[in-house]
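Posting for a labmate who doesn't have an account.
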Amino acid sequence: MKWPGFASAEETGVLNTFRPVQVCFADDDSHRVFVPAQQGTIYVLPNDPKATAAEVFLDITEKVSFNDKTNEEGFLGLAFHPRYRENGYFFVYYTNKADKHQNVLARYPRG
């Protein structure tokens, strides 16, 4: 699987940590899989074993406090509104880069 912004150490010779935190579905009949990474990017891909590449669904890395040496900060969670199909809302939970040790729960509209 190709993840935008990440290349394997075999490809580059440099360790570029990819830290997915969950896998979820939007229950919107699109059959897509959403994979947020601790760095602050949500990836989306078809629910198909033949899929070879993900796309970026949301990138909030500029808002997310992430340190590769810790596991308790960064992008922490994603949830889709029960009526996402109708209203397009989803929620993200992350550690705020602008205010040390502050966590944020934010609602976003479908993009």
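Reply:
Got it, the structure tokens are right above this. The chain has a mean pLDDT of 91.
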